[in-house]
Amino acid sequence: MSDLTLREAARKPDLLAPGHRLCAGCGESIIVRMVLKAVRGPTMATTATGCLEVSTTIFPYTAWNLPWIHSAFENAAATASGMEAAWQAMRRRGRGPLAKYETLDIIAFAGDGGTYDIGLQALSGALERGHDFTYVLLDNEAYMNTGIQRSGGTPRAAATTTSPAGRVIPGKREWKKPIDEIVVAHEIPYVATMSAAYPMDVLRKARRAFEAEGPAFLHAIVPCARGWRYPPEKTIEVSRLAVQTCIFPLWECRLEGGRPVYRLSAASSAIARRPEAKKPVEEYLEIQGRFRHLFRPERRGDIVDSIQAWVDNRWELLLERAGL
Amino acid sequence: MMQRQVLMGINGDEAVAYATKQVNPDVLAAYPITPQTIIVERFSEYVADGLVDTEFVAVESEHSALSNCIGAAAAGARAFTASAANGLALMWEMTYIAASLRLPIVMAIVNRALPGPINIHNDHSDSMGARDCGWIQVYCENSQEVYDACIEAWRMGEHPDVQLPVMVCLDGFTLSHTMENVLTLPDEEVEGFVGERGYMTIRGHMGDAEFRLDPETPLTMGPCDLQDFYFEHKLQQVEAMKQALDAIPEVDAEYAKVSGRRYGLIHPYRMEDAEVALVGLGSTMGTVRHVVDGLREEGVKAGLVKIRVFRPFPEEDILEAVGDVPVVGVLDKSASFGAPGGPLYEEVKTTFYDESDRPLIADYIYGLGGRDASQGLIRGIFRSLEGIRSRGEVAEKVSFVGVRE
């Protein structure tokens, strides 16, 4: 394992060039650029349909300085598994244009819609088959590209255009699907969560994912200023609060001796050591317009409390898993 | 130079698997579905026995099967899959994308009726439903044709003027599960014939590159393509299909040198002086040919035009083959609900519309859900055509034949 230093990362050229059409403050481009800083060498990527795809490749322009393909929405994992199969076949045969690459970092980027919902089957299949690729879930917690519709990744109470905060129903009624546990249950070598507020952690985890032999899954929280209704300059602040409130803790999980071994990452393990450092989830909720109805016209303490209870419960569960 | 060939007793699915084993593609991704399953089973055996070094990907759905092939073919690999009916329907989205990405994937479709109600037997509702997705479609009459098409398909799709995916269609059960004699080429002949995969050259701001994913020549495939360029890209697909009309016979001619078997886009039979003729495709054409011979002995001047390649549609060849035959019946093994007739009928009628001297044309939709197409049924259709000829008009444009009273 070889971790990148910040200096090395800064010197590496961006594989996602500036000039793309993602929104100012978009969490996706930040994570994608960081992840791509960590590639070991030859790299290929596929992207599911979504903001990242449409905003980076409006023909005849492209922001990608690496071989890249988009084929559809629900099949990023299947497409990546085909790319990997091609490379494996050529490697084994010692012929074909990819035969010469001893390592090839194959990355699938997909959003929450393309992962929690429509792409779950293809993801599960690719993980089960054990293809050597890295799946990066860019989780902005709704279908942002089509205009902020709820997905299985949308948190409870968030207002979206298909789970609006109405007079009777206060936003999404269901809890966020525990996608990481679903992925971990596939017994793949490496699973990790990440937040752009902790860039060195992102770089380190992305490199671990590429180095893993077999499928790796990186789950990034990517705040969306448009969909979450906060000023675009606050993306990193929101990314940090997600971790500090433990609604999105940072951890990694390796398969060791056939068992999933969870390890908290620095930011979250500091909270585990000093529980008083854990911020109330309200601080995270109240700066986002998607939760405005929990605070105005009157404070919905019942809902805020239920979210805090959910966060606490999940945090404790994680601590147990991490043996803390 | 004609090669020594081995006669094998195999069914249509095995012919697909055996030909594909000889081609030894880089990647095969497939999902089981009746009546295609034998293909995947046989190929798995080849993999398990080390007879091929193909990367076999046992995917979790047909959608992923084709998605996997797309990823593999985009990365420069030869990729193969096979499906039928519901499986093809589940792939539908990806069939268009494979074609628009100009990836010469080969897919065997073991034709089976689309539900509902669920039915596993043969008709052409699956592949006919996919006729506009941008794939070359080859329909096979027997397992020999299946074997040959599964070798030729790579060269058709990869032809530098074409670069499109190819569907090889064979009738479920009638061909897929029926043992026939198939002449097979030696492995090295197949290897030599298919050669290495060729790529399109594209021009970008960094110069020319082969159209495939490679870290040395990073290019973007499948971009967001809006009002300003999408139309032009569609026209390129239209052009490629047109060029396939020339490329396919070219490949056929080369294949004939190796195998001694030559197929065109169509195969006319006893059409020179025919007065009534049928146009159709698939395994029923063997029965029709047999009936034509019988009728000829009885003094009826019957003929047949078998369509082998349905996409691109060989209009010129059909015009020439039909010539001045006054009455033509079309055999459609799929219904197009709410349409003027079956898919083949519509294409044939369109083909003749601009001709000043055109035949009377009637559509006979038969065999849905595997309903038997017997000699008696075909004879009945020829009788109907003779009736049209003597009356000088088509009373019923579209008939559903072989239907329970």
Topology:
The complex is a heterodimer of chains A (324) and B (405).
Chain A: H1 6-11, H2 27-37, E1 43-47, H3 51-56, E2 68-69, H4 76-93, E3 105-111, H5 113-117, H6 120-129, E4 134-139, H7 179-184, E5 190-195, H8 199-211, E6 216-221, H9 225-228, H10 235-244, E7 251-256, E8 259-264, H11 266-273, H12 281-286, H13 301-321
Parallel strand pairs in A: 1-2, 1-3, 3-4, 4-6, 5-6
Antiparallel strand pairs in A: 5-7, 7-8
Chain B: E1 6-10, H1 12-23, E2 27-30, H2 37-48, E3 55-58, H3 62-74, E4 79-83, H4 85-100, E5 106-111, H5 125-129, E6 136-139, H6 143-158, E7 166-171, E8 180-184, H7 187-194, E9 201-204, E10 207-210, E11 220-221, H8 230-259, E12 266-269, E13 276-280, H9 284-297, E14 302-307, E15 309-311, H10 315-322, E16 327-332, H11 343-353, E17 360-365, H12 375-391, E18 398-400
Parallel strand pairs in B: 2-3, 2-4, 4-5, 5-7, 6-7, 13-14, 13-16, 16-17, 17-18
Antiparallel strand pairs in B: 1-8, 6-15, 9-10, 12-14
Helix pairs in contact in B: 1-2, 1-6, 3-4, 6-8, 10-11
TL;DR of this structure?
With 324 residues, chain A is α/β, with parallel strands linked by helices. Chain A has helices at 6-11, 27-37, 51-56, 76-93, 113-117, 120-129, 179-184, 199-211, 225-228, 235-244, 266-273, 281-286, 301-321, and strands spanning 43-47, 68-69, 105-111, 134-139, 190-195, 216-221, 251-256, 259-264. In chain A, β1 (43-47), α3 and β2 form a beta-alpha-beta unit.
Structure description:
- The complex is a heterodimer of chains A (324) and B (405).
- Chain A contains 13 helices and eight strands.
- With 324 residues, chain A is of the alpha/beta class.
- Chain A has a single domain (6-321), classed as 3-Layer(aba) Sandwich (Rossmann fold), CATH 3.40.50.
- An eight-stranded mixed beta sheet of chain A has the order 2-1-3-4-6-5-7-8, sandwiched between helices.
- Chain A is globular.
- Chain A starts with 5 loop residues before the first helix and ends with a helix.
- The model of chain A has no long low-confidence stretch (mean pLDDT 97).
- The model of chain B has no long low-confidence stretch (mean pLDDT 97).
- Chain B folds into two domains: 6-200 and 239-259, Thiamin diphosphate (ThDP)-binding fold, Pyr/PP domains (Rossmann fold); 266-400, Rossmann fold (3-Layer(aba) Sandwich), CATH 3.40.50.
- Chain B has helices at residues 12-23, 37-48, 62-74, 85-100, 125-129, 143-158, 187-194, 230-259, 284-297, 315-322, 343-353, 375-391; strands spanning 6-10, 27-30, 55-58, 79-83, 106-111, 136-139, 166-171, 180-184, 201-204, 207-210, 220-221, 266-269, 276-280, 302-307, 309-311, 327-332, 360-365, 398-400.
- Chain B is built from twelve helices and 18 strands.
- The N and C termini of chain B lie far apart (55 Å).
- In chain B, the strands form four sheets. Chain B has a seven-stranded mixed beta sheet, sandwiched between helices. A six-stranded mixed beta sheet of chain B has the order 12-14-13-16-17-18, sandwiched between helices.
- Chain B is 40% helix and 20% strand.
- Chain B has 405 residues and is of the alpha/beta class.
- The chains are: A alpha/beta (324), B alpha/beta (405).
- At the A-B interface, β1, β2, α4 and α6 of A face β3, α3, α4 and β11 of B.
